[in-house]
């Protein structure tokens, strides 16, 4: 097929659209490729916006990934910024385009159309929501407005405790503002489980952020003297100089909806594994699409740059394949086969990362699972500077497959999560984790890597060598709780009703323990409890271990 006359139009730039355009050019030198971007910038680092507001990134120019000139001269791609696509005529294969600078309209024809219209920040219909001083953060002009407002402010209020909310809190504190964060859920970082998110909440409070959890915004009004008053669901009136809405985003799917393209229940465009919509000449990528969760199989919205870039690459490959081979010939070589939702956030030096399903999601879907907690150092303990990483691994009770993981710490937190995410993508089991061969030198890790240890704990449990007690039953169990830490550690804080039998004296005191009652063991992080389990079970006692020990107990208590 002759590609000389083929025309690819892409609506939206940034991650998905810009990647699609560049990939299409690499595959087809003769295609006519045009990008229409409603904003002022075709490709920018929106993940860096909070750090531009906080002066960590000191120049707006550093946020610009690629300019229209670069696209033109390096790739021979035509880019029109401040240009809005207002209508799609699917039958004629044309779009209506509005030049926002001149308010003039024109039509453009296409052979393939890619929708990368992104998502828009959620602004709930609350009284006063459109008052001056209430901002969202989605693009560079938004960041300019917030940056200017902070120069005249002493107080800021953030509505929403997700990734953007936490990053904004850190940056506003760094600018010297008093920051309050309001979150409807009972925890920050709702994608995580509460006990893991609690580490981030503690770090926020330690750095002066006032957290108001389980509380929502009801209305806004002008303060008679200065700033704004926010009324909350608990009846509080909070005074502030500026408000940042970080409630989340929703797909910008109006163009697709009006064109009659299929949308999912979550409001995103439905696509096949090649990013094609229900119209054979239209593809969609990025935050505007719904994607399949690889763990649960459910459709979901994942507004992340990584998936958007991969989707753009897949769509471009499929388009050029169809131009060359036709729709009914061999399938395109690349597919987008779902997401894990792998994500990371840093707040005041604490890194929080996750991949796959959370425990609360698995519970909601009725998926059987088990979990282990561990708290290893990020490298060998004897090498200076070791910092703990708090890890939670979720896995299937039935087929031992990994279901998800979360990790929190100050150093190298992304490494174990990235390894586990890679294993998840391959459908790996906990037995695969315990056998992974990973880099080791004392300044980089441990001979027993945290990922290996997570796999060993889970595998030991599944083999019956390390039966785990259920933390959720701690308040109601009739089991005897035995704390095997030292007397001094026990005196410094322990689980109520737990009896102290230090590991070092346990052999001499086995006779004190009942053989006709379940025994649950706890220690600092789980290691000594495991040693105690091996000793006691070989002496005929019925024993289980509370995974992660007192570190996990403390995390769970903070989350309550």
Summarize the structure.
The chain is of the alpha/beta class. Helix 1 (16-27) packs parallel to helix 8 (305-325) and helix 6 (194-206) packs across helix 15.
Structure, explained:
This protein is 27% helix and 25% strand. The chain has 560 residues and is of the alpha/beta class. The strands form nine sheets. It has a five-stranded parallel beta sheet with strand order 5-2-1-9-20. The longest helix has 21 residues.
Task: Give the beta-strand count.
Answer: 31
Q: Could you tell me the radius of gyration in angstroms?
A: 27 Å
Low-confidence stretches: none
Question: What is the terminal separation in angstroms?
Answer: 64 Å
Count of alpha/pi helices: 15
Basic shape: globular
Instruction: Give the biggest beta sheet.
Output: 5 strands, parallel
Structural class: alpha/beta
What share of residues is helical? Answer: 25-40%
Strand order in the largest sheet: 5-2-1-9-20
* Strand-residue proportion: 15-25%
Overall average pLDDT: 95
What labels would you give this structure?
single chain; 560 residues; alpha/beta; five-stranded parallel β-sheet; 15 helices; 27% helix; 25% strand
Topology:
Blueprint: E1 7-11, H1 16-27, E2 32-36, E3 43-44, H2 49-53, E4 64-66, H3 68-75, E5 78-80, E6 83-89, E7 94-99, E8 104-109, E9 112-115, E10 119-121, E11 134-136, H4 140-150, E12 155-159, H5 163-174, E13 178-183, H6 194-206, E14 210-213, E15 217-222, E16 228-232, E17 237-240, E18 242-245, E19 249-251, H7 254-258, E20 282-284, E21 291-292, E22 299-300, H8 305-325, E23 343-347, E24 350-356, H9 359-365, E25 369-374, E26 389-396, E27 402-409, H10 414-425, H11 430-434, H12 450-463, E28 480-483, H13 487-491, E29 499-500, E30 519-522, H14 527-537, E31 543-545, H15 549-559
Parallel strand pairs: 1-2, 1-9, 2-5, 9-20, 11-18, 12-13, 12-18, 13-14, 28-29, 28-30, 30-31
Antiparallel strand pairs: 3-4, 6-7, 7-8, 10-19, 15-16, 16-17, 21-22, 23-24, 24-27, 25-26, 26-27
Helix pairs in contact: 1-8, 6-15
């Amino acid at each position: 097929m002759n590609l000389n006359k083929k025309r690819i139009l892409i609506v939206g730039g940034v991650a998905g659209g810009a990647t699609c355009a560049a990939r299409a050019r690499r595959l087809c030198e003769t295609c006519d490729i045009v990008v229409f971007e409603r904003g002022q910038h075709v490709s920018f680092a929106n993940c860096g916006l909070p750090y531009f507001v906080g002066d960590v990134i000191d120049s707006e120019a550093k946020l610009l990934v690629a300019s229209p000139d670069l696209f033109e001269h390096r790739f021979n791609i035509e880019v029109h910024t401040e240009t809005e696509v207002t209508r799609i005529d699917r039958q004629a294969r044309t779009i209506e385009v509005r030049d926002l600078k001149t308010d003039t309209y024109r039509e453009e024809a296409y052979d393939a159309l890619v929708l990368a219209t992104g998502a828009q920040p959620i602004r709930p219909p609350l009284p006063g929501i459109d008052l001056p001083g209430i901002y969202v953060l989605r693009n560079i002009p938004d960041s300019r407005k917030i940056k200017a407002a902070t120069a005249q402010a002493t107080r800021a209020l953030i509505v929403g405790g997700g990734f953007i909310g936490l990053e904004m809190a850190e940056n506003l504190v760094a600018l010297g503002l008093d920051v309050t964060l309001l979150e409807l859920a009972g925890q920050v970082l709702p994608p995580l489980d509460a006990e893991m998110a609690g580490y981030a909440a503690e770090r926020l409070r330690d750095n002066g952020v006032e957290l108001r959890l389980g509380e929502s915004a009801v209305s806004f009004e002008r303060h008679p003297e200065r700033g704004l008053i926010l009324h909350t669901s608990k009846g509080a009136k909070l005074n502030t100089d500026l408000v940042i809405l970080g409630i989340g985003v929703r797909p910008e799917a109006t163009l697709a909806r009006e064109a009659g393209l299929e949308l999912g229940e979550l409001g995103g465009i439905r696509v096949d594994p090649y990013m094609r919509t229900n119209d054979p000449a239209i593809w969609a990528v990025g935050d505007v699409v719904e994607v399949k969760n690889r763990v649960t199989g459910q459709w979901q919205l994942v507004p992340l740059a990584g998936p958007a870039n991969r989707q753009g690459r897949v769509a471009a490959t499929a388009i050029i394949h169809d131009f060359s081979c036709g729709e009914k010939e061999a399938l395109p070589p690349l597919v987008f086969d779902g997401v894990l939702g792998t994500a990371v956030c840093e707040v005041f030096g604490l890194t929080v990362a996750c991949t796959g399903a959370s425990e609360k999601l698995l519970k909601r879907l009725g998926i059987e699972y088990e979990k282990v907690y561990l708290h290893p150092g990020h490298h060998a303990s004897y090498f200076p500077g070791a910092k703990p990483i708090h890890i939670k691994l979720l896995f299937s009770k039935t087929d031992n497959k990994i279901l998800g993981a979360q990790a929190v710490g100050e150093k190298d937190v992304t490494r174990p999560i990235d390894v586990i995410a890679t294993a998840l993508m391959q459908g790996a089991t906990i037995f695969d984790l315990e056998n992974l061969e990973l880099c080791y030198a004392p300044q980089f890790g441990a001979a027993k890597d945290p990922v290996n240890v997570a796999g060993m704990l889970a595998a030991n449990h599944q083999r019956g060598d390390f039966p785990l007690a259920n933390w959720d039953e701690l308040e109601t169990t009739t089991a005897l709780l035995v704390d095997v830490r030292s007397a001094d550690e026990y005196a410094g804080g322990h689980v109520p009703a737990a009896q102290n039998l230090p590991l070092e004296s346990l052999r001499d005191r086995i006779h004190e323990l009942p053989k006709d009652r379940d025994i649950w063991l706890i220690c600092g992080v789980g290691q000594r409890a495991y040693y105690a389990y091996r000793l006691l079970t070989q002496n005929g006692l019925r024993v289980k271990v509370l995974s992660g020990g007192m570190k996990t107990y403390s995390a769970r208590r903070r989350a309550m």
